[in-house]
Amino acid sequence: MESKRVVVTGLGALTPIGNTVEEFWNGLANGVSGADLITRFDATNFKTKFACEVKNFEVTDFIPRQDARKMDLFTQFGVVIADQAIADAGLNEADINKDKVGVIWGSGIGGLKTFEDEMMAFAQGSGVPRFNPFFIPKMIADSVSGQISIKNGFRGPNYVTVSACSSANNAIIDAFNYIRLGRMKVCVSGGSEATITQAGVGGFNALKALSERNDDPKTASRPYDKDRDGFVLGEGGGGIVLEEYEHAKARGAKIYCELIGGGFSSDAYHITAPHPEGYGAFLSMQDAIEDAGIELAEIDYINTHGTSTPLGDPQEIKAIEQLFGDHAYNMSISSTKSMTGHLLGGAGAIESIAAILALEHQLVPPTINIFNQDETINPKIDLTPNKAKAKKLTTVLSNCFGFGGHNATLIFRKV
């Protein structure tokens, strides 16, 4: 059976550096950091007192209060993001068969704040079990895809992928596969996360995963810098409308680019640490290249996972050098987490959008906060340090790797 072509026709973003796609891109292009002191709770006694929060977001500007109170923040983010992407794609009743429109979303953790609030209230109460009737539907990760589907009447495949920080990339690849197999015409995909909570920050602090650069939050996320000390927690997410190419053409949709390949792998090594030789990352990128049916030399830019952790950053670069050989020194590479922080299950969505917009604008977003490049990283690698760079881009790749050894890679090409 001949595979259908799959294109991107809509984008939505709600991020620590902008609450629309345009604002997000302007932040990326100008090297803006979204990090600042935490406002969502009193972080005085926490080892890390800062994060990359979504700013100036009032949910009732977008969702009626009676509906919003039935959703955790990660679902509220997802519904608003999906609305942006659907509007950008120009989807309307006359153009689509809603039986063939799906929603496949990603979230690594789901309703952490809801769970935290309910447990704290129970622990501080009389011992009589009194729980919010919306506790379970707010908390479970698949609530977000369900809410997007219900609001829009989309009756195609509907679920949420959970694979830690690879969740959104996994969701996008699943949507890609359904469409190219002819099982769907359109899919709203992406991911969202809202884990800047006491449990989220405290838990990652206990893992020694977060930066503790409390005196200078805006420079704390510093992928590939020798003084990096952990990642910066982010929140928000991104949405992508994927569509079968002929369907998009028939309705006169704007086409951003084509999604041409997706790759998966597992490190099969450790629950939190990456494979020391980057073998899982190597396999994931190799699988995506093979799926796309292209040559290694066709990749112009890689949006790396690049979390700013001591172990993860060099392993990914090692995998890139092993796979691409000398072409690794012709490509541009950058980690946009240096600006947005790490959105966990939503990371792949906003980083895919960053890669797509890099194609759109022919501009590589920078890796900010590289003050002293890690000497273990080959200086011939173009990390796009500190400033965006104009470059001819035709094909770009985006990586996400998650706790548990989950790896997922996407490849987009200019149409």
From TrEMBL:
Known pathway: Lipid metabolism; fatty acid biosynthesis
Protein's UniProt keywords contain Chloroplast: no
Domain Ketosynthase family 3 (KS3): 3-414
Key words of the record: Acyltransferase, Fatty acid biosynthesis, Fatty acid metabolism, Lipid biosynthesis, Lipid metabolism, Transferase
Alphabetized GO MF terms: 3-oxoacyl-[acyl-carrier-protein] synthase activity
EC number: 2.3.1.179
Reactions catalysed, as given in the entry: a fatty acyl-[ACP] + malonyl-[ACP] + H(+) = a 3-oxoacyl-[ACP] + holo-[ACP] + CO2; (9Z)-hexadecenoyl-[ACP] + malonyl-[ACP] + H(+) = 3-oxo-(11Z)-octadecenoyl-[ACP] + holo-[ACP] + CO2
SUPFAM superfamilies in the cross-refs: Thiolase-like (SSF53901)
Enzymatic class: transferase
Transmembrane segments annotated in the record for this chain: none
Function: Involved in the type II fatty acid elongation cycle. Catalyzes the elongation of a wide range of acyl-ACP by the addition of two carbons from malonyl-ACP to an acyl acceptor. Can efficiently catalyze the conversion of palmitoleoyl-ACP (cis-hexadec-9-enoyl-ACP) to cis-vaccenoyl-ACP (cis-octadec-11-enoyl-ACP), an essential step in the thermal regulation of fatty acid composition.
Similarity comment: family membership: Belongs to the thiolase-like superfamily. Beta-ketoacyl-ACP synthases family.
The protein's name: 3-oxoacyl-[acyl-carrier-protein] synthase 2
Gene source species: Lacihabitans lacunae
